[in-house]
Amino acid sequence: MLFDTITAISTPLGEGAIGIVRMSGPDSFQILSEIFKPFKKSNDVLENRKMYYGHIFNNAKMIDEVMVVKLPSSGSYTMEDVVEINCHGGMMPLREILALILSKGARMADKGEFTKRAFLNGRIDLAQAESVMDLISAKTEIGFDVAMHQLKGHLSEKITQYRDNLIGLMAEIEVSIDYPEEDIEEITYSKIESTLANIKNHLNDILEKSKSGKIIREGLKTVIVGKPNVGKSSLMNALLKDSRAIVTEIPGTTRDVIEEYMNISGIPIKLMDTAGIRDTEDLVEKIGVQKSKFYFNEADLIIFVLDASVALTKEDHEIMSLVKNKHAIVIINKTDLESKIDMNAIHSVLMDKTIIKASIQNELGIEALENEIKNMVFGNEVEVNYTDIMSNARHIQLVKDAEKNISDALNAVHSGMPYDFIEVDVKNAILNLGHITGESVEEDLMNTIFSNFCLGK
Description:
K(+) binds at residues 229, 248, 250, 253. Residues 219-378 form the TrmE-type G domain. Homodimer. Heterotetramer of two MnmE and two MnmG subunits. Belongs to the TRAFAC class TrmE-Era-EngA-EngB-Septin-like GTPase superfamily. TrmE GTPase family. This protein is an alpha/beta fold. It has three domains: 6-124, Gyrase A, domain 2 (2-Layer Sandwich); 131-215 and 389-451, Four Helix Bundle (Hemerythrin (Met), subunit A), CATH 1.20.120; 217-378, Rossmann fold (3-Layer(aba) Sandwich). Helices cover 46% and strands 17% of the residues. The protein has helices at residues 28-35, 91-103, 113-120, 126-137, 141-151, 154-178, 189-218, 232-240, 283-298, 314-323, 343-349, 366-378, 393-414, 419-437, 443-451; strands at 6-9, 18-24, 36-38, 51-58, 61-71, 82-88, 107-108, 220-225, 258-264, 267-273, 301-307, 328-333, 354-357. The chain has a seven-stranded mixed beta sheet. Strands 9-10-8-11-12-13 form a six-stranded mixed beta sheet, with helices on both faces. Strand 12 (328-333), helix 11 and strand 13 (354-357) form a beta-alpha-beta unit. Helix 4 (126-137) packs antiparallel against helix 5 (141-151), helix 6 (154-178) packs antiparallel against helix 7 and helix 7 packs antiparallel against helix 13 (393-414). Residues 244-256 and 277-281 have low confidence and may be disordered.
């Protein structure tokens, strides 16, 4: 039941200095008065937005010494009366305080229910609510900044503006449809086209920038491939600045896929070192090669490593034929040794790929690789405007759907179709944009979104 009093532990379970139990709802202040005894005169009333030291009691039994704060509905996160109890961060104090609050009539909060109430009470819109989880799960400073800008409502302001423009256009179309005989200025096809084309351009701009936003939020799946003994594991260790992968002179040392997360200029990278791709009779190595090919197909970015000190082999040519159709960077390793590789053959197959000459053992080429990855994500922009980046996959799809609706409406305009046909597509675009901010969201979708939140948020 919405708008009853809910409670949850809002900090991770385990040992820590401080743990927080949160309440929200109409009975929060009353429950606090029944279980909390401040370290002050008993007849004093606890003031709002002030932290008080005291103890939590279950009848005569003292549970823990705590610090508590009361936040009235006018300025709380949920726009309801909220209480936060800061206790010791062990498992037992948190669980005992939670159980005590539940015994006083509160119920356990569902996942994301505090943020859901903030949305339903009008404190934030749906896009801002979803950015809360993005803040919590951000892997880099840039990811955090993007989520923070969305929490502040920068994305919502743009989407709302485009939606309002479409609503205004639809109102004019409906007047022309419903009151053709009235002395009202009829909207023209040229005005419809101009308005729709302008909004379509803005949505296309958002979608173009969302490519980097999705990577910032979810990470760039990057797979290092190449035949055995070209320096793949050495490259991974150099990027991680740690000896994560075993490096030997023996080809086929890496038998399985090694995964690690790293940060390049604020971009979260899921880096995978794979077994060298080659024909082999070794059963274990063969399984590793099969895994390499699987991850190769799933990757956002391929780092293809070649050995400059040996001539191109059949395996190199086979891998090149696979890489040419992928987003890839080519590393020519071991350039400190005598070169025997045919660069012309590489350029002829991988003519559109960035090729970096490196000596991983001597730490040459690593910085160039990191800069190229940054350029692939952000383009050549020196400074990234975080307010323009959309990172949520649900939002991106809805903008794509709205852009498609507007394209269909423009096609109807160009074909001279009746206003009724144009109106249908404009309405669908309004609906899709409204799903982003929550203006037209269904209950089932809303419940699905908040079920992905952590408990206590």
